[in-house]
Amino acid sequence: MAVAEFDLIKRFFASLPQHGRGVGLGIGDDCALLEVPDGQQLAVSIDTLVEGTHFLPGIPAEQLAYRALGACVSDLAAMGAEPAWLTLALTLPESDPDWLEGFSRGLGEGMARYGLSLVGGDTTRGHRALSLQVHGWVPKGKALTRRGAQPGDSIWVSGTLGDAMAGLDQLQTQADQDPYLLGRFYRPSARIELGLALREIASAALDISDGLLADLSHLLQHQDLGAELQLAQIPLSDALLDRYPEQQALNWALGGGEDFELCFCVPANRRQQWLEKLPGLSVSCREIGAICRKPGLIGVDRQGNRRPMAASGYQHF
Length: 317
Ligand code: ADP
Ligand code: MG
Fold this sequence. Notes:
about 325 residues, alpha+beta, globular
């Protein structure tokens, strides 16, 4: 790839339209030069995806890029940050123009959607893998973190849960595939608008990447707290319930991951403010339970039966 490397960067990456502000110097020098506006903090997150481990070898390059970007930007959403810049480290077995064309298209589409500029990266030859690093801005002291939940806070989630796992299941097993569920797997929506709206509201927040129970338990561990979840309130899409038994749907919603919805806590004294804001948002949100003092996760079913739940989620090691 050595010979074609600079052409490749120029053709597929440097030429993408730029959407994030504050770029003094972008692709083409040894470093990018970037301006963080006064009074803002830089929020930074990186995700690495390795072929065969994090994505299937056959995934179309366009889908791979769009999905990887959505997953990465979701971390900015979870912090209440506004997306600005992107860097990309790409390792490829060969420089295949068709693959690169698709990848560049998917990346460009995601950059336009989330308002990002690609400001640099690295391109190497090897087993296919990519690292995306996103950078966003958040006013000093206003970021949403995993700390801060208190007993009595209500617990909320955005969108619907379990769809991405169902989409993956359809991809792997079923001939008759549901376009909505496949779309939820291939094209996650980072909830940026919601993250920004929650800056003045939520006591704690994170995005659901490993599964609701696993991610929620990260949020609880910081303060040695527990949570009670109303299982009938877990939001499940019609598409999911049409295709799968309710128990399977709920299992995916609680343990599946990859939905990239937000889970957040609202203190009682900001509840009214939140309820007033909610109808103006383009994503639906559902109250699913409450933080309690006693550590552990309790599920409460329709009949009011309570049972402890294990926080199993995806772990790499
Ligand atoms: P250096 O050798 O100084 O690290 P490179 O030759 O690797 O620089 O890259 C040249 C320029 O192209 C740099 O500005 C780098 O950030 C950018 N770049 C390289 N690969 C990519 C990529 N995949 N996406 C975006 N920018 C890239
Ligand atoms: Mg250099």
